[in-house]
């Protein structure tokens, strides 16, 4: 494949990845890695390196827009990131002694369960009936966000703070063990445990994944897994797509975003289970 065609395909798919990543708070790796490996025949380590850069690009573009639009809850993001980071360190330490295949299957089953629970809450548009947890009151985690469909600001409370901390720690452990992003677990944790509106969950996850990815990017650079010819068009495409996705989410209904997230979770779940069974395509 010629270089212009390679760059065009990588750029185009990355724009789509940026839109999806910004909407759902997942980063762009779910689309970038399969396209690079399966369509462009990029070695997996270089695809993962480019994916890490794409996550940083998604977070940088979308998080800035979401903070400006008051969708991101910075207090919740920084508070939960302590648990995720601690879990990631734990997972990295356990990576050499815990078998990988069973973990992929377990991770896939957890994602499938999360997708089911989110689907059951598909009509929970604004989540304004949640009761504030005492920790949320003390830390002042409750806030508000603009909802055009409601014609103004929507107040929301924050429930289940200890449970969310535990889930975030578990997400970090899985991320460290399997070397994957934990955005697919962060959004369900905030949505199901803390009863946050789905827009706030996605926006806050975008902020958090950028912090995690930035911390690990240096390792990929040091190993030589970030190839400029691959990472540059991916980063640019994801950046533009994330800006478009961030603008789009402000006008989308929460129910639609939840439906999209359920579909994506099911896709990731199947991929993880197949990988655990040795049947994955990449």
Assembly type: single chain
Tell me the distance between the termini. 19 Å
Order of helices and strands: HHHHHHEEHHHHH
Tally of discrete structural domains: 1
What proportion strand?
Answer: under 5%
Q: Name the strands of the widest sheet in spatial order.
A: 1-2
**Uncertain spans, ≥5 residues at pLDDT below 50?**
none
Shape: globular
Note down, in words, how this protein is organized:
With 282 residues, the protein is mainly α. The chain has one domain (3-276). Helices cover 73% and strands 4% of the residues. The chain is built from eleven helices and two strands, in the order ααααααββααααα. A two-stranded antiparallel ribbon has the order 1-2. α1 (3-24) packs across α3 (44-68), α4 (74-94) crosses α9 and α7 packs antiparallel against α8 (183-193). The model has no long low-confidence stretch (mean pLDDT 84).
List the helices and strands and how they pair.
Elements: H1 3-24, H2 29-39, H3 44-68, H4 74-94, H5 100-120, H6 134-139, E1 143-147, E2 152-156, H7 161-178, H8 183-193, H9 198-223, H10 228-249, H11 254-276
Antiparallel strand pairs: 1-2
Helix pairs in contact: 1-2, 1-3, 1-9, 1-10, 2-3, 3-9, 3-10, 4-7, 4-9, 5-8, 5-11, 7-8, 8-9
Task: Compose a concise summary of this entry.
With 282 residues, the chain is mainly alpha-helical. Helix content is 73%, strand content 4%.
